[in-house]
Each structure stands twice: as C-alpha cells, then as structure tokens.
Please model this.
Amino acid sequence: MSLRPMGLPPVPEQTVRVARAAFPQGSLAIRVRDRLGEVFTDEPFAEAFGVRGAPGLSPGMLSLVTVLQFAENLTDRQAAAMAIRAIDWKYALGLELTDTGFDHSVLPRFRARLVGNGMERVVFDRLLEYCVDAGLVAAGGKQRTDSTHVVSAVRDLNRLELAGESVRAALEALSVAAPDWLARAVDVPEFAHRYGPRVDSWKLPGSKVKRDQLSQVYGQDALRLCRAVWSPDAPAWLREIGAVDIMRQVLVQTYTVRTSSRGKEVVSKREADEDGVPPGHLRLASPYDTDARWSAKGDDLFWLGYKVHLTESCDNTPPEAEAEAEAEAEAEVRGRPNLITDVTTTLSTVPDVKATAPIQQQLADRGLPPAEHYLDSGYPSAELIETARSRGTVMVTPVLLDRSAQAKSHAGYDKSAFRIDWKARRVRCPQGNTSTGWHPVRQRERDAIVVEFAKTDCQACPVRAECTSARRGNRMLTLYPEHLHTVLAAARAEQKTKTWKDKYALRAGVEGTINQALDITGIRRARYRGLPKVRLQHAFSATAINVVRLDAHWTEHPLDRSRTSNLTRLSYRLTA
Model:
C-alpha cells in the first residue's frame, strides 16, 4: 500500500447542498470539517506508508473517521456504516452522496499501522498545535491532572484458569504454525479433549482437592510442552511464538518443579508464603493481553487493566471550581475552553507519583508547561516539587503528611517537635537531649539521613512512651536532605491555610473531565488489547473530547451540566 499525500478531498457541490439543507444549524462533523480540516492531513503519516504499491485510503481521512467514531462512541462497523449513510459524515470526509464508503476492517488495520510506527498521538498533537496557533491554549497558565482506572478488554482469570488457558493458547498457536510437529510431540486427542473448549466455558471443580489436582495437570502439561519445544530436535523458531513464550512465563510464575524423596518429579502450584510469587508489576494476568495487570485502589476498587492520566487547561475556571459548575460553563463560552493537553496511559501498577515527571516533560515538549499544576496527593514528592519549581512550574498539591505513629495518633512527639541543626548535623529532642548519630543513607533509591538518639538518654526519659515504642529502646528519625526537607516542611505548612485550600479547590474540576470522557468515549474500558493500542485509544479519546469542547465553544453552547440540578444552579447564582 502506498501513500500519495492529498489530505481531505474537496466536498462535492451536491454533498454541500444536501448537508446544508439537512443540517441548517450545522453538526459536529460539519463544523469539524469546516474549522479543523487542516488538522487531518496525510503528511504526518508519510513514514507509516510506502511509496510503491496500490494507493490506499487517505490516512488523514481515516484519522478523521476515528475521531468522529470516538466522539460518538461507535464500533468499527458502526463507524464504517456512518461513512455510508450519514450525510454530515460524507460532508466531513468529502465524499459523494453515492460513495459506498469502505469496509470496517480498514479501521483496525489503520490503527495497527499507527501503533507499529509509534504514531498513536499524531492526531492529538496536531489538534493541540492548531489550538496553540489559534490562541485557545498557551504555556504558563493553570493545568490540572487526575487519573482513573481502565478495565482491560480480556476476561478476568484466576490463577487456575490462567494456567489452563495459557496452555490452550499455546496449543492453538502450535496447531496452526506446526501441526505436524505437534502431532508427534504430544497426544493430540488427549490434549484436544482437555483444551479444546475455552477454560471459562465449563465449570471448574468445586472442591479444593479436585482443583489442586486440575492445577497439577495443567502444570504438568505446560512443562511437557515446554520441554518438547525447547528440545534439541525441535525447530528453533517454535520458541519465538508469542503464545509459547507466554505459557513458559506462566509456568515459571505459577508452579515449582521439585524432586520428591523417591526421586519422582513433582509439579506443584506456588504458595506465596513458602515459594514466593512475582511482584504485581511482573505477574501475567492473561495470555491474550500481557500488559494488563491486577491493581487495587483502596478497599473497594480492584481491577485488571491499565491507568490513564488526563491533564487539562483550566485558566477560565473560577477559584470555586466544583461549586460553581455553572459559572465554569459560562467561562468556557466567554473565553478559552478547557482543553486536554496531555493523556498518559500506564500499567495499572504504576503509582501516580511515577507519572508526574513524564507528564510535565511531555507538556514542556509541546511548549505548554503550566505555571501552576494542580494534582492530588498521589502525584507529588519533595524531589518533584523542587524540580518543577526550578523549571517555572508550581505544583499545587497536598503533600503527604508525617507518617510516623506519633503523627497519625496526634499524640506524642512527631518530627516537627525536633529541632534540626543542619550545619552541626545534630538534632535536639523536645526534652533537650542531643542526637548521637547522623547517618547519610540510600533508601528506595533516594538520599536520606537517619538520626539516632542514645539509648541511655531515651530509656531514662520520663516521656519515652510518648516518643517511641521501639524495642531497641531509642528514638530514630529519617529525614530528607536539607533542601528537600525545607521544601516539604514549607508545603505542609502552606496546605493548612485557608488561602491554599480555596486555591486548591480548582483541581476538583478535572473529575468532571474524567466523567465526560467516560460518558462520551467509554475511556474506562479498553477497546483493544496491549498497552500500545490502549494508548492509541486514549489519545483518540482525548482528541474527541477536545473536538466536542471546541464545538461547544464555537457554538457558544455550554457543555452539558445535567449533574447539577436547577435548584443548585439557582443557589450558585444567588451566592455568586
């Protein structure tokens, strides 16, 4: 397939007449074509297509179809059908009214080509460039970030189901790639009886004994198949089959192989306490999506999938952000709309604090670093706050407070009760005793200082019970280096003030953005399998949200605020 850069074709005259007559007030698709046609060009996709071969459909046109597809939350079949029967879509794509469109299978092939060439964010970046040039978003303003969970597109499997399904997936792949070899390597009728149907298509044994027996059978079959594939007389390329390698990883992560006292080989399921299990960020959860991971948030949310972080501009949002939802809507009409400036998708096990630096770097790379960045308490650290400030960005975020037992119980002496002399490298406790040890260390890949007090001082102290309950009998403190300790102490002091709390209320508005993304594009459920394709999904979802918001801005129509009742809106206006 070759590419001849042309961009969107001109809209045929007949299509213009019919579309204008059918939509006298216009529609989203029509306004996107009229105002954003220059965004959907072919040139940015040139590297993904060859220069020889039959010319294919315009990638600019397919990217526009994909954006409209996400804006209306359509499947591939529905989007292809809209290109045939919807007049405003024909206008947007520059098609004749009699054009028969394209087959729905073109869309997944287009997405695969984008993912294969690292072009997941091309359209999102192009639209942001347009918005920057149009003065709709700029550097140095206010932006806010939050994350939400994303459920994977594969079925949840327990450890027993995962073990069986991984063997089944490997057998299915080998049956196609090397049927003759497989017939010689294993008893095909026996394996077909056991692994022909999907593991989730029949009910697993109810008793623990029978489940353990079935688990052992799955482990023995996986081991037998691995040994056959890795035997010297087996073709080496069999080991490169993805499903086979996944089966091997599941075998290693789920089972142990031992030799009994009688010299018999025993395959048994790993027990966390005795044998150990892989950490969550490495543990496979499905043979069909090797990037999906189990994760938890609090006591109520437990999911298999990913995590997405959305960042949006919020210059026009009033300080009483969430309380004045109606005022925010009016501000979007009067001034610049709030637009998504970054979308970052990670594994579900990646903590929010690990995403802070990449998000801020991506904003800087686009020329959109914020002057104030509003985030929740999961994103900051002392190092990140200091680094961002050195680059001109103030992180407006609550930092975690002292986690010591004394601070949590609000009784006794927490770190703030101790006086630190950084030059002398000594700490004085509330009772006047001076530390005897000052030890620079590395903890969790960070510099830290461990301060120790003498056991004789602590054991004789009359308020020892209010200071420490350590068995060793003396109090120890762990401190950041001086410059980070100062940053953290200042942030903790500031976030207790009413001025800071009123200012921080602006962050709450990003919750509405996540809700809008969920309602319009279904962002919390992955459409595709694998992290690269989920990243593409979220990039197009963010682009679709921006298009919807731009359309509301152009038509001076506030975004839907149906979550706020009429009585509540009246209350806001009366108190404004």
Residues 531-554 form the longest helix (24 residues). Residues 318-333 have pLDDT under 50 and may be disordered. DSSP finds 23 helices and 13 strands in the chain. The CA atoms of residues 294 and 304 lie 4 Å apart.
